[in-house]
Structures are given as structure tokens and as C-alpha cells.
Specification:
- Helices cover 38% and strands 19% of the residues.
- With 582 residues, it is of the alpha/beta class.
- The protein has three domains: 167 residues, Formyl transferase, N-terminal domain (Rossmann fold), CATH 3.40.50.170; 103 residues, Methionyl-tRNA Fmet Formyltransferase, Chain A, domain 2 (Roll), CATH 3.10.25.10; 246 residues, Alpha-Beta Complex (2-enoyl-CoA Hydratase, Chain A, domain 1).
- The strands form six sheets. Strands 4-3-5-6-7-8 form a six-stranded mixed beta sheet, with helices on both faces.
Length: 582
């Protein structure tokens, strides 16, 4: 028994409930709620709302839930389900907010505070009685990042409160009443492209950023460039470059910089507009989507991680030092790391290792740590198998560099989620520190892969062979507290993203200042690495893993290429995957 998220007591003494998560996708919030409720001892299942009401009814009947939670729905719950069961909807808006584009409107309108409401399903969408609500301060970031951080934190608190009320019984939810002083929201329409359109000749940098941030994940902002239409995903301010509004001023690491009337913004990713009847399109680095000839004459402006840390510009890498601690921050859209991104991070890592520090902290300031290889870039490659091979070798090189660093204590600091090779990248460090909200997916099989990144060395060493096999086989998300109990991570701390980063800096500085104790740890680290290498070289682990991966990439009939294509193009599954049914 202990205290967990939002001060709620984690207890396995209460009678566990059967809770069914009804969701349009097993997305990050659904996974977090799934992991958190399982940590509290509940029996949790998932049923995907795939547009077939009969399948939903069958899923509910099969699971026999005591409570149904809907973390993310794009369709209405059938009346017979919500009338026969308590169904609680998680809506990403404050009390009274209604409509399918809550966060889009909040970001584009410049809201400074927002909220999450848990309400009961009724016939009218988002109009049911309110079980719980939680407010949060808006941050100047993209919708997907906001959703995975502040929104998810608030949603988790509200969900746990609602579940507690349901467990205790006798709770009377609050009817939606717009005359109440704490009901500030209102019904809003779908945030269509007419509201998102950028006028490069008149929109300020701030306005452009709001529009881009409100659509960064989906659906993107439909825009025109060089006479062609693209969806733009994501946007970042540029502090120095200026030019004619709308002009492309520079490129950097796959992104393009475009001038506004009073500044400029970086556009990291584009998606070609789909031709009716044509194949699905997907997000890629901007320079990979625009014809190379159109960018002829546009200067490429690389930036070092150290310089980026002193600028208000776009860079995936930043390096700075505080109290004799090196901090190497990396932030890759969606957590995916292409061959080029892995190589750039490896170069930055080697430069950081050359600095006269004793402790090095790795990880983004916010959001994803890493999700491993870049499936979108692989899908778009002339030969996806060859690009898969290059990408996995590039991330292996990075992990190997971390594993063989013996003159520094390396800390992986996870403010956000990690999956597959991204989890193994984190485990390569000497210690793994997690924000309590972190969800880990330390497995590969859902993409039809055996996995690499030296997982066969690192994972059993941390959790034992039996637990490693279970994690790979079950392929379920693992919450931070459960990961700590397994030994998968070393330290877990509560708090929001800002509090976590402040804590990481303090703890890392304490390690650095430990003097002889830290020096002793480094000697022990070097010794252990030598012993492990003598027992079985890292090269042997890599060779064995890559032999399996080569078969997945190049073998006939392997499911990886189909699974990757379906993932990249957001293909909807026909049924709920068996491993999450519960």
C-alpha cells in the first residue's frame, strides 16, 4: 500500500473490479489508464470501438464489466450499452465543453487554462452528468504533446477520482448546468480546415504557431507550397532568420524554415495530400516530401546541440551543463528515430562524453523518450528492408556507445513514454529515472519483430529471464510503478513534467558532487563491463539479434512489412487484438 498519482492511495486490499476500457484506439491515454488501474489491482480489459455496434455488444457481454470507461472515443456508445451499464466518458475539455475538437479550439484560441471532464454517457454527446473534472495550465506546445502530458495527467486524476466514487457507491454525479459558476465550456463545432488555414501574408508568427500546434498530430494544416498542397504537422519558432512572408528560408535536419510577416517558423513534417482513390499518405520529414529540385538554392543550416541550447530555434538535440552534469536532450517527433537521427544523436553523445563531466543525463525535457526505429521513413524508402537494416544498425551503434561508456555515470531520464527499441535505449544507461506518469512498452512482437538494441543482454540482467520472456510475450504496457517493482527502472517520482526535470537536475548534481563515491561507482562499472564482456561479448548479442531481424526484414512471408504499413497508414484493425482483451 502506498501513495500514487494525485495523492490517491494504491491499495490491493479492496475488492478488485472488472473495468472495461472502451476506446477507438489503444492510444497513449488508454494505455496509461490500463496500466494504472491494473497497478491498483483491478481486472482490466479493452474493447476497441471499430464502428461495429454488434462487436461492442459482444465485447461487453464477454467481459461482463462492473464499470466501463471510455478514454478516447470517436463514435457514440450504443444506447443499450450505456443504459444497462455505467459508462464514463473522458472528455479533454472543462465542464460544459462539448464537441469533437476540444483541444484544437483551446490551442488555437490561446486558452491559458483548460481541463478534463469525466462524464456519464447519455443520448446527447458530452451532455451527461459529471463525475469528476480536473483543470491544468496550458503549455505552448503541440496538441499531441499536450495530450500526452498535461491532458493525460489531468485525465488520470479525474478517472481515479471517478473510479473511487463508483467503488464507494451512492455517489450522485453533477448534472450539466450552464448556470453554475464553475461550468465555463460551451459546445463547439468540428475544427475544420477553414479555421486552420494559414495566411502567410498576414498571420503573425504567434498565430501561425497556434494553428500548427492545434493540428500537429491530426489532421495537420492544409497548406500550399511551390504550387502543391501538403498537410503540415508541427511548428517551431525561429529566432533569427527573416524573409519575404511565405518564403522558404532554410533547411535543417529534414525540416524547412518558412518566413512569416514578423519572423519565421520551422516546419519539421509534411504529408502529401492524398489523391482520391490513391494510396494513403503519411507524415515524413519535410525535405523528404518536397521535390529536391524545388529546394535547390535553399541553404542548409545545421546547428550544434550546444548552440541550440542557447537559441529559440528548432533542433532535435540540445546540450548544456549544470553543476558539472551534462544534459543531452533529444526530441524526435512521435518518438521515432530514423537512421540519420540515430547517427546525429550518436555524434552528439560522443561530443558530450568528451566533456569534463562525471554525470551525463539523457532524455527529452518533455514527452516521448524514444519509440525506436522510424517506421514512416522506412515505409517511404526505395527499399524498406534495406532501410530497416540501416536503421536498426544505427540505433544499435547508439546503444552500444552508451553501454561501453565507463568514465561517466549515464542517466536516462524519462519524462514521457518509451517503447520497443526506445525502452532498450533507456536501459543502456546506468540508471533509469521515470516520471510516475511514464508508460513503457518493452516489446517488439506487435510489429512482427524479434528486436535488437542488445535487449537480450540488458532486459534479463534487469528483470531476470523469466520476466523478460513474459514482458515480450504479453506485449502489454507497463506503468512506471510496476516497472520499478520489476526492477526495469530504478527510480520513479511523482509530479508534472517541470517538477520532474527540476528533480532530475538536483539528483544528477548530487551524484556529480559525490566525489569519491561516484569515482568508486565508475571503477565498479568498468569492472562489471569487463566481466560481462569476457562472459559473452556485446558483439555476440548483437549478431544473434540481428540474424533474427534480418530474417524479419528480408524473409518471405514475414508479417513485419504488412504490420508496418498498417501502422504507418493508420489502418483500422478489424477486431480488438487478443492480447488486450483482458
Amino acid at each position: 500500500m502506498g501513495i500514487g498519482l494525485c495523492g490517491h492511495e494504491i491499495s490491493l486490499l479492496r475488492k478488485p473490479m472488472r473495468i472495461l476500457l472502451l476506446s477507438s484506439a489503444f492510444n497513449s491515454l488508454t494505455q496509461r489508464i490500463h496500466a494504472e488501474l491494473r497497478q491498483r489491482g483491478h481486472c482490466v480489459g479493452v474493447e476497441l470501438a471499430l464502428g461495429d455496434d454488434e462487436s461492442l455488444r459482444a465485447g461487453v457481454a464477454r467481459f461482463r464489466p462492473e464499470l466501463i470507461l471510455a478514454p478516447m472515443l470517436t463514435v457514440a456508445v450504443p444506447e443499450d450499452i450505456w443504459s444497462e451499464n455505467t459508462v464514463l466518458i473522458v472528455h479533454p475539455g472543462p465542464k460544459g465543453d462539448r464537441g469533437p475538437s476540444a483541444l484544437d479550439w483551446a490551442i488555437s484560441s490561446g486558452a491559458t487554462e483548460w481541463g478534463v471532464t469525466v462524464l456519464q454517457a447519455v443520448a446527447e454527446m458530452d451532455a451527461g452528468p459529471i463525475w469528476a473534472s480536473e483543470s491544468f495550465v496550458m503549455r505552448p506546445c503541440g496538441k499531441s504533446e499536450l495530450y500526452r502530458t498535461e491532458v493525460a495527467d489531468a485525465a488520470m486524476c479525474a478517472v481515479l477520482r471517478a473510479v473511487e466514487f463508483f467503488e464507494q457507491g451512492g455517489f450522485e454525479p453533477e448534472p450539466l448546468d450552464y448556470d453554475r459558476p464553475d461550468v465555463h465550456g460551451r459546445q463547439r463545432p468540428y475544427h475544420a480546415q477553414e479555421f486552420r488555414r494559414i495566411d502567410w501574408s498576414s498571420d503573425s508568427t504567434e498565430m501561425v504557431l497556434r494553428k500548427l500546434r492545434a493540428a500537429d498530430s491530426q489532421p495537420g494544416v492544409l497548406d500550399e507550397l511551390y504550387g502543391r498542397q501538403y498537410f503540415v504537422h508541427g511548428g517551431h519558432r525561429e529566432d533569427r532568420l527573416r524573409g519575404a512572408p511565405g518564403a522558404v528560408l532554410a533547411t535543417r535536419d529534414g525540416a524547412i524554415c518558412r518566413a512569416t510577416v514578423d519572423g519565421a517558423v520551422w516546419l519539421p513534417r509534411l504529408r502529401s495530400r492524398r489523391i482520391p482513390g490513391g494510396p494513403a499518405t503519411f507524415k515524413l520529414p519535410a525535405t523528404a516530401v518536397i521535390d529536391r529540385e524545388l529546394l535547390a538554392g535553399v541553404p542548409d543550416l545545421p546547428i550544434s546541440a550546444a548552440e541550440a541550447a542557447t537559441r529559440d530555434t528548432w533542433s532535435e538535440l540540445r546540450y548544456y551543463e549544470l553543476e558539472n552534469v551534462g544534459h543531452l536532450e533529444f526530441s524526435f517527433a512521435g518518438g521515432a528515430m530514423s537512421t540519420d537521427q540515430c547517427r546525429r544523436l550518436l555524434d552528439a553523445y560522443r561530443r558530450a562524453c568528451a566533456r569534463p563531466t562525471t554525470v551525463l543525463v539523457l532524455g527529452p525535457a518533455r514527452d516521448f523518450f524514444s519509440n525506436g526505429i522510424h517506421l514512416n521513413v522506412i515505409e517511404a524508402a526505395a527499399d524498406p528492408a534495406d532501410e530497416s537494416w540501416r536503421n536498426v544498425n544505427a540505433i544499435d551503434d547508439l546503444v552500444e556507445a552508451i553501454l561501453t561508456t565507463t568514465d561517466k555515470l549515464v542517466i536516462s531520464a524519462l519524462a514521457g513514454n518509451a517503447a520497443a527499441g526506445g525502452v532498450m535505449l533507456a536501459l543502456a544507461a546506468d540508471e533509469v529515472w521515470c516520471r510516475e506518469a511514464t508508460v513503457l512498452n518493452p516489446h517488439y512482437r506487435l510489429m512482427g519483430l524479434y528486436g535488437s538494441e542488445y535487449w537480450t543482454y540488458m532486459l534479463p540482467r534487469r528483470v531476470g529471464t523469466r520476466q523478460a520472456d513474459r514482458l515480450m510475450r504479453e506485449a502489454l504496457p507497463v506503468g512506471a510503478r510496476a516497472a520499478e517493482a520489476l526492477g526495469l527502472v530504478d527510480l520513479v517520482v511523482p509530479g508534472d513534467v517541470g517538477e520532474f526535470r527540476a528533480w532530475v537536475r538536483r539528483e544528477a548534481a548530487t551524484l556529480s558532487a559525490a566525489g569519491s563515491a561516484t569515482a568508486g561507482r565508475l571503477l565498479e562499472k568498468k569492472h562489471c563491463r569487463a566481466v560481462d564482456e569476457a562472459a559473452k561479448p556485446l558483439a555476440a548479442y548483437r549478431s544473434e539479434e540481428l540474424s533474427r531481424m534480418r530474417q524479419h526484414f528480408y524473409g518471405a512471408g514475414e508479417p513485419y512489412h504488412r504490420l508496418r504499413h498498417d501502422f504507418v497508414t493508420n489502418a483500422r484493425p478489424s477486431v480488438t487484438p487478443a492480447h488486450i482483451l483482458g
